[in-house]
Design a protein that fits this description.
alpha/beta
């Protein structure tokens, strides 16, 4: 189990939490535009457990693969989401996976970050809530500023702010 990452240490930049949900994908795109405009690094973090992880390719009925294989499956899925996000190629992106619950894993990763970006809702079962439980916990306990991106946010405000500054 020593090979499985249980703590992520990031120095500066934007950290975006990603759980594979549509809202977290939109938060990733929003954070990518911000990282490009600010010319800072983007760190995409997925906290996982065996319950929330995709099954490794070696999984078969009656066989539970070792944790490093689960971690690889999570990392592969996360990097596929990052590729699918269509971020500007100039954005410096690093993917991290951490074997921990979402809130503590992201709090640890954001300890030295400039900003933590989250989707308003993740994969949780209470669809009527405006803010998911993980986002709610991080808004209250994160060690850095937090931006919560609601579903449908386009980031046009970032582009418009950049255009207005360029015109001055």
């Amino acid at each position: 189990m020593d090979d499985v990452c249980e703590v992520v240490q990031i120095d500066g930049g934007v950290v975006v939490g990603h759980d594979g949900s549509k809202c977290s994908q939109e938060a990733l795109q929003w954070a990518g535009r911000l990282a490009r405009r600010a010319d800072i690094e983007l760190h995409v973090v997925r906290a996982w457990s065996m319950i929330t992880a995709p099954q490794p390719s070696t999984w078969t009925p009656g066989y539970v693969p070792p944790l490093p294989e689960w971690e690889k499956a999570v990392f592969d899925e996360l990097t596929a989401h990052v590729r699918k996000a269509g971020l500007d190629p100039s954005v410096r992106v690093t993917c991290h996976v951490v074997h921990d619950k979402a809130a503590p894993g992201l709090i640890g990763a954001a300890r030295n970050a400039n900003l933590l970006v989250l989707g308003a809702r993740g994969r949780g079962g209470f669809r009527g809530l405006l803010l998911g439980s993980t986002s709610d916990q991080l808004v209250h306990h994160a060690p850095c500023p937090v931006t919560v991106v609601r579903s449908g946010a386009t980031g046009r405000d970032i582009e418009a702010a950049g255009s207005a500054l360029a015109a001055e």
